[in-house]
Amino acid sequence: MAPPPLSMEPTGWFQVAWSPEISVGAVHKMKYFGREMVAWRSASGRVSVFDAYCEHLGAHLGYGGHVDGENLVCPFHGWEWNAEGRNVCVPYENHPNKGRRIRSYPTVERNAAVWIWYDVERREPYFGVPDIFADFSDGKTADDYYPPFPAATIYRPGLELHPQYVMENGVDFAHFKFVHKTPFMPDFTRHDFSGPVSYVDFTIAFEEGATLESATSGVESINAGLGVSVTRSWGMIDNRTMPAVTPVDETTSDVRFTVWIGRKPGEETAPDITEYGKIMSGFVIEQFEADIHIWSHQRYSDPPALSRKEFAGFRALRQWATQFYPESEPTDTRPGESEELVTVPKSELDRLRAAASLGS
């Protein structure tokens, strides 16, 4: 992938695991946004995500660190850190080190997944992770679907693609016919990019011979920032999907995809996904893998050579996406143009201004 002129540190919620991967007492190693991290689950079941290194002498908490009750214990000297990353125990002192704190990330478990809030300026979350059931209006719950993990999921680590590609897919009506082999191009019935959570709905069908005029099926999607997308399909295989792309470093991302398939009559109480559920989810996953094949070899075109019909959707999506990028990052670089940007910390800027005023 040619590196896109987009930051790989956008603000938002990003999936870092599926909930069942982090059992009580587990310490899960990972790397996202160029930072070593650990996720761990306390005795009460709460999941926390930290930067990986102990603030005492820098031991990596993912190598030998363990959970004791509600705290994460460093393997090097036994210092204990609570769910907020604060030191609560130095075992050979009579008080904790209240001045040090490991960076922790706001964490939410929803839709069978673990999400962290990432923001380079460390602002608190200002929008949430949509619920793949409650936030659609059909009244269905998780009990109406087979449990997706692990059989109805895919995980593709370290791919050279950007999270924005998934969001752009949602307004790219033309690709459905050529990538997904639909009999016609979809008709978009809703494009709402008025806030950090956007909504895109369209009419689509996969049956051979179907036409736009005769179609009785479609997709509704809710997109919270660039890291969260949930969809509900209607009038076709009863399924909901959740693609998630989380940046690992400046060039690669981990891709996860989760599929919920509606239960077949007679299988309402099956504890695990059945053969029917596996087959149906396999069809949905096959479509998503066709997208991944394109994205992982794609160059981000800016400005793109859009047709007249494509212009409004892509323009709205890309304008919406700019709100999630650090202000110092260019988001509309033209081929042949270059700018050298220098980022100066505020403290240094204030010092330079003070020095300039003294000199005058």
Classify the secondary structure makeup into a structural class: alpha+beta
Q: Roughly how many Å is the radius of gyration?
A: 23 Å
Secondary-structure element series: EEEEEEEEEEEEHHEEEEEEHHH
Helical content band: 10-25%
| Overall CATH class of the largest domain | Alpha Beta
Strand line-up of the largest beta sheet: 12-18-17-16-15-14-13
CATH topology of the largest domain: Naphthalene 1,2-dioxygenase Alpha Subunit, Chain A, domain 1
Give me some keywords for this one.
single chain; 2 domains; 7-stranded antiparallel beta sheet; Naphthalene 1,2-dioxygenase Alpha Subunit, Chain A, domain 1; 17% helix; Rieske Iron-sulfur Protein; 5 helices
Q: Care to describe what's here?
A:
With 360 residues, the protein is an alpha+beta fold. It has two domains: 12-118, Rieske [2Fe-2S] iron-sulphur domain (Rieske Iron-sulfur Protein), CATH 2.102.10; 142-319, Naphthalene 1,2-dioxygenase Alpha Subunit, Chain A, domain 1, CATH 3.90.380.10. 17% of the residues lie in helices and 28% in strands. The chain has five helices and 18 strands. It has helices spanning 164-169, 175-179, 275-295, 308-321, 346-359, and strands at residues 12-18, 27-32, 35-41, 47-51, 66-68, 71-73, 80-81, 87-89, 104-105, 107-110, 113-118, 153-159, 187-192, 197-203, 218-224, 228-234, 239-247, 253-261.
